[in-house]
Structures are given as C-alpha cells and as structure tokens.
Prior knowledge:
Chain A has helices spanning about 20-30, 85-95, 100-115, 120-125, 140-160, and strands at about 1-5, 10-15, 50, 55, 70. By secondary structure, chain A is α+β, with helices and mostly antiparallel strands.
Amino acid sequence: MKISFVLNGEPVEIDTQPDRRVVDVLREELGLTGTKESCGSGDCGACTILVDGESRLSCLMLAAQLQAREIHTIEGFEQLGRLHPIQEAFVEIGAVQCGFCTPGMTLAAADLLNRIPTPTRDEIRAGLAGNLCRCTGYQKIVDAVESVAARGRHEAHSTEEDR
Amino acid sequence: MRNVHLPETIDELWNIWEHDPEAVVYAGGTDLLVMLRKGMVNPSSLICLERIGELKGIRAEGEEIVIGACTTHTTILMNSLIRKHVPVLAEAVKVLGSPPIRHMGTIGGNIVNASPAGDTLPPLYVLDARVEILSREQSRLVPIKEFILGPGQVDMRRHEIVGGVRLPASPQYAIHHFEKVGRRKALACSVAGMAAVLNISDAGIVERARIAWGSVGPTVVTSPAVDAALEGRPLSEATLKTAIPLVENAVSPISDIRASAQYRKTVSGNLLRRLCRYSHSAHTTRAGHK
C-alpha cells in the first residue's frame, strides 16, 4: 500500500504493509532509529512522535494512519546544524543519562510547551508523565524543560523591551 | 498482512463492512493494538475510525451534552461545555493514562472496552449517560448501566458502533468530584476510583447524591443505599462514616497484581469518607498512589 505523508517537513511516499506499526516503519523502512521502542504497549513513551503537532505513540499506530499526516520525529528537531532549544537545555543541564528515553522526552516536552508555554514544575511533571526514564533522572529533565520555558519567557520579555 | 481501512464518513464504514464483514473497528488503538501485538486478537482486517468527522466533537443538544464516540480524552479535558456542565468527567479524564494516551484514546473506546477500571465510566454512571448505538439500519439509545454487561462485555450486535454518549445537562450538581487511587500517579490502571456528584442546600444538607466506584467490581458499582444514606444529612465525616459499611457491602472487588480485595474495599470506603474535605469546592480531582 502506498502511503504519503510529511516527515520532518519533507513530503514522503512509502510502499508498505498498512498494518505495520509506525515505529517499525520509521526505524526499519526509513532508517530513523531515533524513535525508540521499549514496552510496545503504550506504557513508556519511548516511541513518542508528533502527529499534526500532537504527541502520540508510534507503537500504537499503524502505517495506514500516516496517510496525509504531518509527522515529526527527533531527527527533525535539529535545524541547520543547530540543536532545538529543548535539546540544548537537555545537554546543558545534563538531563541525559543513557539517552534511551531522551527522544521521547524531547517530543513530549515539545507537545507540553506548545500547549503551556510557561508551565509550572507540576505541569511539567504531568506533561511528561507518559515517559519513563529508567535511569530515573527526572529531576534534571524537569529542570531542563523549566529552563526552556524560562528562556522563552526571557526572550519574549527582551523582544518587548527592544521595541 | 491485514488491510487497514480509514473511512471518513459513517456511510463509508457501512460500505466497508458490506465488502469486508469480518473487519474489526478501532478508534485510538490504545487497547486493541496492544491486544493485537500480544496475539490476543487476530482480525483479518481493521477499520480505523479516527477520521470520521461525524463521530467527533462535543455539542449541546436541547437538554443534553452530546460527545461523539471518537472524541479524544484531550478534547474532552479542554472543552468548555464539559468543564462547565459536567466537570466530573473532565476530572476523571485528567488522570486517565498519560498525555499521549489522552491524545489518542477516545471516550467511545473507553466505553466499548468496558474495563472494570475504565476511568470515564464512574462519571458516566453518576451522570446517567445514555450510549448512542448506530447500525446501518437504525440507531438506539441505551443507559450506560444497561449497555455495560460485564468486563469487556457490552450490549452491541454485529456491525454496530457506538456513535456517542449523551449526558443530561440537568440536574445540575454543585459538587463534582473524582478521585482515583493507583500504584503510580500516571499511566496506572486504577486500584479503586470514585465519582461523586452532589447538591448541598444552603444549610449544608445533602439534597441529592450520586456516587459510583470503579475497579471494585466486574462493572461500575453504584448503591442507592449509599446515596440515600447521604441525602437529607449534612455532608460531614459523621454522615460519611455511617455510609462506609454500606459501601463495603456494595463493592465486590477481586485481588490481582495491583491490590488485594480487602485493600480495595477499604479504599472504596475511604474515598467516600474523604468527600467531606471537598464539600466546599465546586469540583475536585485527585490521583493518589498507594
């Protein structure tokens, strides 16, 4: 079955089985191994992607459901050789240990910040509640997301002052 | 290989079933695709309902609020009609699964799945929801209590779907409360959950109470005896305490990997007892953990 969608800003067409899981399409057909699989049952968030801007689990989506959707994976977060602000914050604050949960965490954080640009720590915890980190480095992850939000606030503030 | 159909209208769905009668429907996929992966089900083909616009959205219709079956939990959580008229449902959805599960999972899916631990079900019971069931030939409305027959069992025939759920906008309740206890605060199947809607007079007397528990019986547990024990009395710890034996009598929990039957029984009573803490707030939610 031919399936057309937009992947990280580029239109793509794939020919695959309609009932393949999206995580397998991404990893095995498209070679985008940034999207991880851990539990395969929606409990861990490692396979989180953005579908039309909203976080979803690619282990619980079938290839046919990609048709005409706009998909973002971690591979699309770096732009022109520069890390996304969420990624920069994860690096600076040390929110990465083994790294396995990091792509999912990053995408979950992007979804959260799209909905709530300046979340409280409790809102950050609730927003990342679907993503497990087995190194249990949650503190730094929350710190990193908080710093992105703070920076966003700062940038908005300075832009206003510049005017 | 299975075919996966993606109808965009309900008519398209009926046509697909005409040509592919064994196809199984799913909405968010958060339950069916897990069972498929585990080999618990093996349908020859699938129909994904997520693109059927007619099955999505929330609207006021006369004296009712109508929620389309394929409306996601996130949409319910953000919706102003729900927050205004039936906040107990928003409070339950807030602690259901996790953000991505709420972005995918739908209320229709939660109803049809008929899990004893389904978080939207206790609110739907206390609100006297009616489930709208569609087939090519007809539609019918069934009260939620009659629709859910047992764990995973619902009053649905071949080639029917749930079109939506209807919630009466009246009576209006002043207190909407949902509390769930699980092993973790998120992504946890509830060990026990309780939805409560109440009206309290100016003098502090309970005028009307509707309470329902999840995860402590094969289906949601309601108890006219408990409701009656609260009505006509002040919403105080003393009143709630007298109702606890009635709660323990009404629930029929099992022991499983999450909790023992006795623990669930105790928690069911304590969830009711805690209601007096919330008697002054308009609506409240809590997701606790053991």
